[in-house]
Amino acid sequence: MHTEEVIPPVIEEQITYSEEETFVPEDIQPEKTEFADVPWYCYSRLIYHACGIVDGVAYTNSREAMEATLSQDNRLVEVDFLFTEDGHLICGHKWKDIIPVEEEKDTNKKKKKPKEEIPEIKCDLDTFLTLKIKEKYTGLTGKNIIEYMQRYPDLYIVLDTKEEDSTLVVSELLRLCDYRPDIADRFVIQLFDSGLKEKMLELYPFPDDNFLFTCYKFDPLRVPEILEICRNEQIDVVTVPYGSWEQETIDLFLAEGIILFEHTVNLTEEMLVSLQKGIYGFYTDSVQQWELQAISAGCDI
């Protein structure tokens, strides 16, 4: 039996978790929720990257980072997901962030191999629950994220994964939340390529606003192709690396009514430059809402 820590929900209805496989009910329809009438990006221009920063440390996807972010009343959080060796969903950007790999020598060249060339080490859920991320922080599981969403009914989770098939991650999160619309409607699905939105909608009828196209696995300079994908698939939000698009390209997307985010931006002066160009929001590790409000006070945004 796994000894996974449970976050006590503060609302009455409890989620039940089954180890059995589930299926999507044929007649499932999203229910109208308190937040259904307004797109997720209207609540915040900041998406807290990998659960946000804690003790000056980024990329932990840890309980401590999540608690620090939520304590600042931030409710738009990006979480990275991975599967353990035994098929459980946990939070992590890469396995190397969870189980550090040591540099090893290339016996032929007698020099150390770069860490990115060393195979990652995975583990099962029970082992993961005993580990400390960066030797200090507590790991989270997919089940924990659902518990947070139950505890905070205004929390939106932007889903990211390095798994080859992101539909498996979304499918497991839907199973964990029992396909409850009050939770599932608060998943913001990052799309990495054309055709992925349709596959996600086969899993669950997500609201149209709950998708964004991200360019970090897609060459952001393939502008005509990205624009065509957004037009054909009715995608209203695009995320690009900071500073990767010239004003002409930004204007092209703004003319189509597409909202633009940049990642990852941790300096308010950089945010100010982008806001003046028409960028709407940012993935950030550390910038707080009041800081963005302070610099944007003089901007026409």
Annotate the secondary structure layout.
Elements: E1 46-48, H1 63-71, E2 76-83, E3 89-91, H2 95-98, E4 105-106, E5 111-112, H3 125-128, E6 132-133, E7 137-138, H4 142-151, E8 156-161, H5 166-176, H6 181-184, E9 187-191, H7 196-203, E10 211-214, H8 223-233, E11 237-241, H9 247-255, E12 259-263, H10 268-277, E13 281-284, H11 289-296
Parallel strand pairs: 1-13, 2-8, 8-9, 9-10, 10-11, 11-12, 12-13
Antiparallel strand pairs: 2-3, 4-5, 6-7
What is this entry, summarized?
The chain has helices spanning about 65-70, 95-100, 125-130, 140-150, 165-175, 180-185, 195-205, 225-235, 245-255, 270-275, 290-295, and strands at about 45-50, 75-85, 90, 105, 110, 130-135, 135-140, 155-160, 185-190, 210-215, 235-240, 260-265, 280-285.
Describe this structure as you would to a colleague:
With 301 residues, the protein is α/β, with parallel strands linked by helices. The chain has one domain (42-296): Alpha-Beta Barrel (TIM Barrel), CATH 3.20.20.190. The protein contains 11 helices and 13 strands. The protein has a 9-stranded mixed β-sheet with strand order 1-13-12-11-10-9-8-2-3. It has a two-stranded antiparallel sheet with strand order 4-5. A two-stranded antiparallel sheet has the order 6-7. α5 (166-176) packs parallel to α7 and α10 (268-277) packs across α11. It starts with 45 loop residues before the first strand and ends in a 5-residue tail after the last helix.
